[in-house]
Amino acid sequence: MERQDVEQPRATRRVRIGSLEVGGGAPVAVQSMCATKTRDIDATVEQVHQLARAGAAIVRIAVDNEKEVEALKEIRALTDGVTLSVDLQENYRVAATVAPYVDKIRYNPGHLHHIERSKTIADKVGWLADVAGDHDCAIRIGVNCGSVAPEFLERYPGDQLEAIVQSALYHCELMERVGFDRFVVSLKDSDPEKVVAANTRFAEVRPDVPLHLGVTEAGMPPEGIIKSRLAFEKLLARGIGDTLRVSLTLPNERKHEEVEVGHKIIQDVEAGRFISVPDFGKGLNIISCPSCSRVENESFVELAQQVRELAAYAATHRITIAVMGCRVNGPGETDDADLGLWCGPSTVNLKKKDVKVGTYGYAEVLPRLRAELDRLIAERAA
């Protein structure tokens, strides 16, 4: 551990999320997300309590359809006292039916174009703000590297980082046009340096807006913890960050470790303790999304671990392998990886960059991945 000076937190406005306040000098809040299937009410309630016991100030649950809305009603009734956030997927209209049962709504600007294409993005955001206002909810505008709104990718060709920042700034403006200011923003990437750069750029333009920090698809411990620390330490030390999540690929029974690690990072930064890993990230990079309720096959977590073991021989090669667990993040967030595995309910899509190599069973994909990895290493050597 190294020792460094830490700046005072930014003077953002305070945003109330249920009984919790974030920003404006309030302590940094740690949050996590349920990895259980939302329709499995008993398992999800138990995981909400598991995460809350570990110190999660906010627990997020994904809802994608009306059956999950019905489950959420019961989950809310059985988790009184826990601050709940709902993660809207590609169907933003679900917000109207879930808002009465949660304290915060999280939407991704890159997913708003999927339905009701005749409506403008401004109209959709205005509607979300109205729903949140009517039901006393806060909102998180969550921009992710693998699902940036197409119009911003077109506007900033070759500069995804600027597209992420400008997308977030635009959605802040849309919220404020309709008089809604109970929102926070997150700008996430799987590369810690890009997370630092995006959040720093945004904070310079909008120092008033509270920020939720996250390294998306950080992967498995210990590498995923290191990636998260590298980003969070730099940002928190500059006074940037009001809530955070450490997104780790973990089995359900260990999901609370995300929360424990988050608190440890905050404590270390407050004490001026920072890690030093000068060679980290110079070789093989395996990114994998955090286990969450969107995962379509629980074998995804085991597959990610098997990929790490299989690829260990390529540790010195600067190659990125992405292992994604669902249809929401899978297609887009494997496009930039040298090799990508996008996991479905019974099969895995193997990709090289944005080109699909084939679709294989969970038991068949590892030898195929090994062959592609060998081929890639040989191509680069030649």
Show unreliable segments.
none
Largest sheet: 8 strands, parallel
> What's the count of strands?
17
CATH architectural designation of the largest domain = Alpha-Beta Barrel
Query: How would you sum up the global shape?
Result: globular
Specify the CATH homologous superfamily of the largest domain: Dihydropteroate synthase-like
**Rg from alpha-carbon coordinates:** 20 Å
Class by helix and strand content?
Answer: alpha/beta
The CATH topology of the largest domain: TIM Barrel
Number of domains: 2
Q: Give, in spatial order, the strands making up the sheet with the most strands.
A: 9-8-7-6-5-4-11-10
Portion in strands: 15-25%
Order of helices and strands: EEEEHEHEHEHEHHEHEHEHEEHEHEEEH
Quickly count the helices.
Answer: 12
**What's the CATH first level of the largest domain?**
Alpha Beta
Terminus-to-terminus distance: 40 Å
Question: Can you give the mean pLDDT?
Answer: 93
Could you walk me through the main structural features you see in this protein, from its secondary elements to its overall organization?
With 382 residues, the protein is of the alpha/beta class. The protein folds into 2 domains: 2-274, TIM Barrel (Alpha-Beta Barrel); 285-381, 2-Layer Sandwich (Sulfite Reductase Hemoprotein, domain 1). The chain is 37% helix and 20% strand. It has helices spanning 41-53, 66-77, 95-98, 121-134, 150-155, 160-177, 192-205, 223-237, 257-270, 299-310, 330-333, 365-381, and strands spanning 2-3, 15-17, 20-22, 29-33, 58-63, 84-88, 104-107, 138-144, 183-188, 212-214, 243-245, 273-274, 285-288, 320-324, 339-343, 347-352, 355-361. The strands form 4 sheets. Strands 9-8-7-6-5-4-11-10 form an 8-stranded parallel β-sheet. The protein has a 5-stranded mixed β-sheet with strand order 13-14-15-16-17. A hairpin with a 2-residue loop joins strand 2 (15-17) and strand 3 (20-22). The longest helix has 18 residues, at 160-177. 48% of the residues are buried.
